[in-house]
Design a protein that fits this description.
The chain is built from 1 helix and 10 strands. The strands form 2 sheets. Strands 1, 2, 3, 4, 7, 8, 9 and 10 form an 8-stranded antiparallel beta sheet that branches. Strands 5-6 form a two-stranded antiparallel ribbon.
Length: 163
């Protein structure tokens, strides 16, 4: 029988950056996606029946919906943006040509309630923003960002640590 004490529920804290992390207030939770692509190997003698399957790639991504409009933090997740504190202005510039790996940094997902679930550390994650702001009386203005993970020099992508 399973261990019901290891069934977790709860909101998370997300921080981006290892040396000077930006910690975000979120809405609608955090979505972590991990998938593998494979190639089924076939030989003529077995027709379309695969005789084995080989992993050809992996994708690890984390999507967050940032609820706070702190431009100093938002600048860290919108490639090509510049925050001018004196003018209280966030300028979004053309980001064509930016190598996302060059701006990848550590992303950490921690439970808001101690012991609620594992802490997840993505070693190299680069932000890809998808901003859609709705100006209504019943909805938060949200900066949705998908962080794409890249392997480090040893091929490691993320660590899951029991708390």
């Amino acid at each position: 029988m399973g261990d019901t004490a290891k069934v977790y529920l709860g909101p998370a804290k997300v921080s981006f950056g290892k040396s000077d992390p930006a910690v975000f207030d979120l809405t609608k939770g955090v979505t972590l996606t991990f998938s593998q692509s494979t190639h089924p190997v076939t030989v003529d003698q077995y027709g379309e029946q695969p005789i084995k399957e080989i992993v050809t790639g992996q994708e690890f991504a984390v999507e967050v919906a940032i609820a706070e409009s702190d431009f100093a933090k938002i600048t860290k997740v919108i490639p090509g943006s510049i925050y001018e504190p004196a003018d209280k202005k966030l300028s979004i510039r053309n980001a064509v040509g930016i190598d996302l790996l060059s701006i990848a940094d550590q992303l950490t997902i921690e439970p808001n309630v101690e012991g609620a679930f594992d802490t997840i550390t993505v070693l190299k994650a680069a932000p890809r923003p998808n901003v859609s702001r709705s100006f209504t009386t019943t909805g938060e203005q949200v900066y949705t960002v998908t962080f794409t993970a890249y392997p480090d020099g040893d091929g490691e992508i993320a660590d899951f640590t029991n708390v």
